[in-house]
């Protein structure tokens, strides 16, 4: 094995190691229950983002999909309808401009026989509205890379902090009342030291907020919390 | 081995030059060319109580080939092609909203159709997040609807403003963001039309009067409106909930050169 191959091997090892490294994340989940909840095998739930106005608090599509996916899998999983399927099935009543803004608007909506019938067909029991986002709250350090015909490398240290804050409001589609709220906050600092090869140590803040929110929502709607 | 190394070394500069020139040319093409966007995705059928009308729908070439081109200074040019998707949009819309419908070639129609609806796009505008200093790609579309009786006499008309947005956090490129915002604007138009069609004063009065044939317009006029169904120049009543589609932040007009085309491009 020549020196060049050894260098490549070392770089690959470092890359592999960096993939295994992850920054620390602190996640906090809180809930407020307003009514009793329960789900049967025929009941389904939908997780949607609030999009009635352009705002900083619009949850990312990735995050909504992540929460839906996590609620529909693992232990205590529930039957989840995707946001797009739900919006298409109940079009035009849950579009950004027509979606009910509060549970006060629900009874009037559900009084329409055609709509009530469709909701029964899809077995909708709970509607979860998500709001929030993930932001970079702080960053520091510097990193420079050089590339020459003889090779290249990076030197420096970068650090940044991300903060996720999401709130889910759970509406009961049968009683047209708010069942409760669940919030998930997560914060974590990522690092990237570079000594020839940069080694990213990423704090998966959004992912952590998603998993903890989905787990809590599953417990909430099944009344096991 | 030495020969190979030498050969490789000797070829590198020319290869590098070729790669560099290719990259420059590609980047140049990307920077100066107009990016053409087609709407992607399908439109749902509205879930709504059907209005008691059998309407013909006339989509003229101006609508079915409609595209909107806009240049944003230092950002690029985009051409959003809305026309090709209009047939599917109106087919699904009519399936949900009208008792029966059929696409027709002209403004007059035979029984059992009660009349003809002719939609057109009057105005389109879009904004990038950098223009509005927000996180959103935004698209505004203004539709005009003309309602004709069976004989092709105008019953009335109304405008329908629609708005769509797409967060830059969800879409990797400007083209994808604009495409999603345009799609959202079309869905908004469908939603607004579905909910408000039966509430439009023009439609309400015409249906209440038994969908009659209108008196022919006076000679020299361009079709006029009937005495019973006055043109509704104001936007239709907003739904009971939700926001109106006014621009959240108007893009700087100085940075925008827009053109709207209704002919094949």
- Order of helix and strand elements from N to C terminus of chain B: HEEHEEHEEHEEHHE
**Strand fraction band of chain B?**
25-35%
- Total beta-strand segments of chain A: 6
The CATH superfamily of the largest domain in chain B bears the name: Lipoprotein like domain
Question: C-alpha Rg of chain A, in Å?
Answer: 23 Å
What does this molecule look like?
The complex is a heterodimer of chains A (225) and B (265). Chain A is α/β, with parallel strands linked by helices and 225 residues long. In chain A, 30% of the residues lie in helices and 39% in strands. Chain A is built from 6 helices and 6 strands. In chain A, strands 1-6-5-4-2-3 form a 6-stranded mixed beta sheet. The longest helix of chain A has 18 residues, at 3-20. Chain A is elongated and about 75 Å long. In chain A, 32% of the residues are buried. Chain B has 265 residues and is an alpha/beta fold. Chain B folds into 2 domains: 1-32; 33-261, 2-Layer Sandwich (Double Stranded RNA Binding Domain). Chain B contains 6 helices and 9 strands. In chain B, strands 5-2-6-7-8 form a 5-stranded mixed beta sheet. In chain B, strands 1-4-3-9 form a 4-stranded mixed beta sheet. In chain B, a hairpin with a 4-residue loop joins β7 and β8 (154-167). Chain B starts with a helix and ends with a strand. The chains are: A alpha/beta (225), B alpha/beta (265). The A-B interface holds A 51-54, 56, 58, 60-62, 87-93, 95-101, 105, 108, 112, 114-115, 118, 133 and B 44-49, 134-136, 138, 163, 165, 167, 169-170, 184, 187-188, 190-192, 194-195, 239-245, 248.
Question: What is the fold's blueprint, element by element?
Answer:
The complex is a heterodimer of chains A (225) and B (265).
Chain A: H1 3-20, E1 25-33, E2 44-49, H2 61-71, E3 79-81, H3 83-89, H4 106-110, H5 113-122, E4 124-148, E5 151-172, E6 177-198, H6 205-221
Helix pairs in contact in A: 2-6
Chain B: H1 2-32, E1 34-38, E2 51-57, H2 61-64, E3 67-72, E4 76-81, H3 86-97, E5 98-103, E6 115-127, H4 129-132, E7 136-149, E8 154-167, H5 174-196, H6 201-208, E9 256-261
Parallel strand pairs in B: 1-4, 2-5, 2-6
Antiparallel strand pairs in B: 3-4, 3-9, 6-7, 7-8
């Amino acid at each position: 094995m020549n020196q060049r191959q050894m260098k490549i091997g070392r770089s690959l090892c470092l890359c592999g190691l960096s993939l295994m490294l992850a920054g620390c994340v602190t996640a906090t989940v809180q809930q407020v229950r307003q009514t009793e909840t329960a789900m049967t095998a025929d009941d389904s739930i939908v997780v949607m983002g609030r999009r009635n106005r352009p705002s900083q608090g619009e949850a990312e599509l990735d995050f909504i999909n992540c929460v839906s996916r996590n609620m529909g899998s693992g232990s205590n999983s529930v039957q989840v309808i995707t946001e797009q399927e739900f919006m298409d099935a109940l079009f035009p009543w849950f579009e950004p401009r027509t979606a009910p803004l509060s549970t006060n608007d629900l009874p009037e909506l559900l009084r329409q026989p055609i709509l009530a019938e469709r909701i029964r067909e899809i077995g909708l029991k709970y509607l979860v509205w998500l709001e929030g986002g993930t932001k970079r709250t702080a960053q520091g350090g510097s990193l420079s890379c050089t590339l020459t015909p003889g090779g290249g490398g990076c030197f420096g240290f970068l650090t940044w902090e991300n903060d996720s804050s999401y709130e889910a409001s759970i509406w009961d589609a049968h009683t047209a009342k708010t069942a409760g709220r669940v919030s998930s906050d997560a914060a974590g600092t990522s690092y990237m030291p570079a000594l020839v090869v940069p080694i990213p140590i990423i704090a998966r803040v959004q992912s952590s907020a998603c998993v903890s929110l989905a787990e809590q929502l599953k417990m909430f709607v099944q009344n096991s919390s | 081995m030495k020969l190979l190394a030498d050969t490789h070394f000797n070829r590198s500069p020319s290869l590098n030059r070729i790669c560099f020139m290719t990259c420059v040319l590609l980047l140049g093409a990307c920077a100066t060319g107009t990016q053409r966007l087609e709407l992607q995705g399908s439109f749902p059928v509205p879930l709504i109580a059907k209005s008691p009308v059998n309407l013909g729908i006339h989509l003229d070439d101006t609508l079915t080939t409609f595209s909107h081109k806009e240049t944003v200074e230092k950002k690029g040019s985009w051409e959003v092609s809305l026309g090709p998707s209009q047939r599917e949009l109106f087919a699904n819309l009519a399936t949900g909203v009208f008792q029966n419908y059929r696409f027709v070639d002209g403004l007059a129609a035979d029984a059992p159709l009660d009349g003809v609806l002719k939609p057109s796009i009057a105005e389109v505008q879009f904004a990038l997040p950098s223009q509005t200093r927000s996180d959103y790609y935004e698209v505004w579309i203004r539709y005009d609807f003309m309602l004709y009786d069976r004989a092709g006499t105008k019953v009335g008309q109304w405008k329908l403003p629609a708005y769509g947005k797409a967060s830059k956090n969800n879409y990797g490129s400007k083209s994808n963001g604009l495409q999603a915002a345009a799609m959202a604007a079309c869905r908004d138009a469908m939603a607004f039309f579905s909910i408000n069609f039966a509430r439009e004063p023009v439609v309400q009065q015409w249906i209440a009067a038994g969908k009659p044939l209108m008196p022919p317009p006076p000679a020299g006029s361009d079709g006029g409106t009937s005495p019973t169904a006055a043109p509704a120049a104001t936007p239709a009543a907003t739904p009971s909930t939700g926001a109106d589609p006014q621009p959240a932040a108007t893009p700087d007009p100085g940075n925008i050169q827009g053109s709207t085309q209704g002919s094949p491009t």
